[in-house]
Amino acid sequence: MRFGILQFPGTWSDTDCHHAVSAVLGQEADYIWHKDTSLEGLDCVILPGGFSYGDYLRPGAMARLSPVMDALYAFAESGGTVIGICNGFQILCESGLLPGALRANRQLEYRCQWTNLSVERSDTRFSSTCKAGQVLQVPISHGEGNYYADAETLDMLEREGRVLFRYYAANPNGSARNIAGVINEAGNVLGMMPHPERCCEALLGGTDGALIFQSIVDSVSRT
Length: 223
Description:
single chain; 5 helices; alpha/beta; 9-stranded mixed beta sheet
């Protein structure tokens, strides 16, 4: 399959994501510049972590205005697979592709550490290689990863099974209901704060992140 990895000014996890899906999983991967206007031929688009546009205004607020975003809206609307990681999650929320917002960590400090994630569902294109209830070890690296939504939206996400990952045992940033990752209504767009691309090889301390990317690859092979 073919991944496209979006690059905005300030993106810095793009090469990590490229390595994870190409060198580790053996898939095709291309970099897509923020001024590009086509995502033709891609099976999955990754919005990596970083500080797009220096996080001016709010993280992701300027990136959502980039030319490539029109193509991303169309790609997601047509059922294409989209995963936003860390700053990518922030961009997806700012753009309206996912509900909620990412606020400053409760501790008002940058957190870079391993976290435990509970897999809430195993029947999505992002979690099919996992088991419901399985706990994954995936690191975080953010200052504004505190997921927030109003009570009505949170209840809707719970009711519709759209919370895919929760922080397990310890909440590192104050996220509402321990939410670490959510999907859209159609189930083809995922936003998550932890970095699966940083734990795809044993050399890096863990391989649980590969389960998420492998789930994406398997979902494309089934279509």
